[in-house]
Amino acid sequence: MMPVVYSDGTFMEDTIDLQASVYSKFEDSSKAFHSLPLKPCPPKGLLYVDQREFAVTTVSDDVIDTLGSDDATTCHIVVLRHSGTGVTGLCHFDGCNTRQGVEDLVESVLKLGNDGGSLELHVVGGFQDDKETSEKLSRELLSEFHKLEVDVYLMTACISGLNNTVKNGINYPIVYGIAVSVKTGAIFPASFEYKGPDKALRSLRHFIGDTDVKNIYDGTSHRLVIGPYNYGDFPNAWILMQQSDSTLRKYLSTSPAVEPEYFEQSVRAALGFYLSNPDAASVFPDGQPHAFTMTPDGQWSAVTP
């Protein structure tokens, strides 16, 4: 096991007092990150990463300029960049299969370039939620990076209590979304109008028991690749579809009070997709994924896998 190395060169001793040590070292840098302006990211050159997904690319990618993700309440968004090669990965963790996600993200970054540098880690997300779901994920993520056989330098930890603000007596995340420039490595708070293709299908994974963290980008062919997913019966889909927005928010969110206003719309889109496509085999004929290439205006266009 190789320890996580803090940006000041000191080492994380263990995972027992993990959060206390992170808070003391990253309070000032988190405040500085909060102060950065929220930047809307246009579709052109953007690869949006959804919950339970990751993507990795290189500085020589002539299609993708920016990796980004948002809608993180208790979720955490991770950027991992190799300082020597500039290979950059972004992953949206929600507490499912964290170890697998961390290991696959690191392996994918190192596979694309591992010369003359080190792995730099940035983690943003979570807040002081009542169920302490954010705190649990913060600990779990840093612990899994701590267990790796390679050194990882923790550069940003704007997480849980360090990403918290209070509005009318209620705790909220300060930053919900981030993006990273593939060319420069600059990380900033971000919002996204266009979140790529198959959004309802990708969101459906959160309800059908597929807990793996998926790599969605093939940097060689510059293709966004979705699936194939396997899913069986979802008998509660129709029942859930009949519920009020407040009921969906209350029972399908880890943090109902602070979800974005379109939360229920996204849930209904995923449920509606399932009700129209209850057989995964028909969604992915012959077990083939959905593949897309980016058009000049930044939209994703379906192609034959």
Please provide a written account of the structure.
- This protein is an alpha/beta fold.
- α2 packs across α3 (133-146).
- The chain has 8 helices and 18 strands.
- The strands form 4 sheets. It has a 7-stranded mixed β-sheet. Strands 2-13-12-5-3 form a 5-stranded mixed β-sheet, with no helix packed on it.
SSE topology:
Blueprint: E1 4-6, H1 18-34, E2 39-41, E3 46-48, E4 53-57, E5 66-69, E6 76-82, E7 88-93, H2 98-112, E8 119-125, H3 133-146, E9 152-159, E10 164-167, E11 170-173, E12 178-181, E13 187-192, H4 199-204, E14 214-215, E15 217-218, E16 223-226, H5 237-241, H6 245-252, H7 263-276, H8 280-283, E17 290-294, E18 300-303
Parallel strand pairs: 1-9, 2-13, 3-5, 4-14, 8-9
Antiparallel strand pairs: 4-7, 5-12, 6-7, 6-8, 10-11, 12-13, 15-16, 16-17, 17-18
Helix pairs in contact: 2-3
The whole-angstrom Rg is: 19 Å
In DSSP terms, counting alpha (H) and pi (I) runs of 4 or more, how many helices? 8
* Order of helical and strand elements: EHEEEEEEHEHEEEEEHEEEHHHHEE
What would the principal axes of the Cα set say about the shape? globular
